[in-house]
Design brief:
globular; single chain; 123 residues; four-stranded antiparallel sheet; seven-stranded mixed sheet
């Protein structure tokens, strides 16, 4: 499987911004999609956004729409999650995930996962 490494997490005050980066290592197929998920303590892993390397599929969950943006740089083989207007409820471990095929909102359809990066938003 493809190995994924996330970075960019940290501590930020409410209203602040962070940009997360996901870089895959190893081989990726020509048609590969990546998503962002987050998991707060005691909660299920939640879909945040997804994008595909081919085509124009790129979207985020309703819970973060208008604040978060997912993007990709094919030349760098990198996916970004720009997080603006952060709220305390955004506090979670954020994971980058990958799958072969189209994008998906379901964590069960992703088989490549990063180690996670902690995002903490203070009140």
């Amino acid at each position: 499987q493809v190995q994924l490494v996330e970075s960019g997490g940290g501590l930020v005050q409410a209203g602040g911004s962070l940009r997360l980066t996901c870089v895959p290592s190893g081989r990726t197929l020509s048609y590969y999609a990546m998503g962002w998920f987050r998991q707060a303590p005691g909660k299920e892993r939640e879909f945040v956004g997804a994008t595909s390397w081919s085509g124009g599929s790129s979207y985020v969950a309703d819970s973060v729409k208008g604040r978060f943006t997912i993007s990709r740089d094919s030349a760098k083989n990198t996916v970004y999650l720009q997080m603006n207007s952060l709220k305390p409820e955004d506090t979670a471990v954020y994971y980058c995930a990958g799958r072969r095929g189209s994008t998906s909102r379901s964590k069960d359809e992703y088989f490549d996962w990063g180690q996670g990066t902690q995002v903490t938003v203070s009140s």
